[in-house]
Amino acid sequence: MPQIQLTPAQRKQYRADAHHLSPVVMIGNDGLTDAVKKEIDAALSAHGLIKVRVFSDDRVAREAMLQTLADELHAAPIQHIGKLLVLWRPKLEKARTVDEDRMPAPRDFKVLKYSKRAGQRPEVKTLRVLGNQRLTAGGNVKRAKPKPPVSLKKRSQA
Q1: Neighbours of 145 (CB within 10 A)
Q2: Same domain, yes or no: 14 and 53
Q3: Can you name the residues that pair with 52 across neighbouring β-strands?
Q4: CB 112 within 8 A of CB 123
Q5: pLDDT of 59-97, one tens digit each?
Q6: Per-residue pLDDT of the chain (158 residues; tens, 9 = 90+)
Q7: Domain total for the chain?
Q8: Taking the C-alpha atoms of 21, 22, 25 and 26 in order, what is their torsion angle to the nearest 10 degrees?
């Protein structure tokens, strides 16, 4: 599969997004080795848009590296400015299996708090319950697991 083709507007947007990035991979005197390609591939998979610094004074060699990386890693060459190369590849979404028993935390619950005075409306409160907490019947948030007992030494220091 050849490199990804982008419109000039897309390339401009990716150049702007890459402006504040730091280089994540540096290519030394050995050039484009298999280990360097593997690192660049991992960085593209993790970040999508990366900068690569090349420690070579030969501009033609840097251009060839940019084209080689784009072709072999199925990425789009965004920019070659000085000794920096910018590459982009769309990040793949991870397929997650949904476990029916697990619920994401934190969860928000709406609880009615009744006033002690007669004739007033109940107050609606939103309580955030974290993964290690539970909501009691009275509308309070408690820890799911009790705290471990405090030693006598620590109790006397407090």
Answers
A1: 9
A2: yes
A3: 25, 85
A4: yes
A5: 999 999 999 999 999 999 999 999 999 999 998 877 666
A6: 566 889 999 999 999 999 999 999 999 989 999 999 999 999 999 999 999 999 999 999 999 999 999 999 999 999 999 999 999 999 887 766 666 666 566 888 888 888 888 888 888 888 888 877 888 887 788 877 666 778 888 888 86
A7: 2
A8: 140
SS3 4: coil
Burial of 70 (0-12, 13-18, 19+ CB in 10 A): buried
Backbone angles phi, psi at 52, to 5 degrees: -125, 130
What secondary structure letter does DSSP report for 152?
H
Q: Is residue 98 part of a domain?
A: no
| Domain stops at, among 57, 88, 119 | 88
Token pair belonging to 157: 């220091």
Neighbours of 73 (CB within 10 A): 18
Which residues make beta-bridge pairs with 123? 113
pTM for the full predicted model? 0.60
* Cβ–Cβ under 8 Å, residues 131 and 106: yes
